[in-house]
Amino acid sequence: MNTVKRTCSLLLLSAIACLATRSADAAVVIQMDEVPATSSIRLTGSGTINLTDLNFEFSGAFGRPFIPSNSTVGFGGSGKGYSGVTAPGPFGADNNFGMSQSSGDAFMVTTDLNLGGMLFVPTNYVSEAPLSFTGRIDLQTFSSMGVTDGDQLVWTWGSGANADSVTLNIGTTAIPEPDLSIVMLLSLVVSAMFRWRRRGSTVALRALTNFGRCRFRSC
Q1: CB-based contact 14:111 (threshold 8 Å)
Q2: Tens digits of per-residue pLDDT, 159-214?
Q3: 198 and 90 in one domain?
């Protein structure tokens, strides 16, 4: 019976760890919303950045551009520019809808003609430190900017443990569905615990152990 309890506990902890890891995949998330009351667009971003697999190019000041055709979202400031980013490509009109105001940390993702996708962070930024910033674009709507409500754009870089990303959610985006195999595992754990309490069944232990070996070998 103690073996069943230990197995259930270990598999439950493994499932929780996998879920926690997957929820952290998008390191910086920017939410973009329409504000009808003020005829404006509000952008709010936060998260962390892993610089390990990026290439430092230069330092300098940058503005607050928002150019959908060039995958550019800038909150202004002074910082360091890094190449090695894969940009999502055009997602709206070929125009610079510059932000009227911004606050918080310096931050920008863009596409350079020669260097390709780039990321800008504060000058003294330390890899994986928290970032937060906000911006506003006046007298615009999703329609006037040519962007689509519900779209999700992602800038990616790195590989393995150093893989990272910036995600722009435009308006109401779909909530990702949970991994069904993990949901099944959690269901099995709960079911086995009930069976153990009632009959001390070893069948539940064998089922859980086999499923866990199969699932978490690649988790």
Answers
A1: no
A2: 999 999 999 999 985 444 454 455 455 555 555 555 555 555 554 445 545 555 55
A3: no
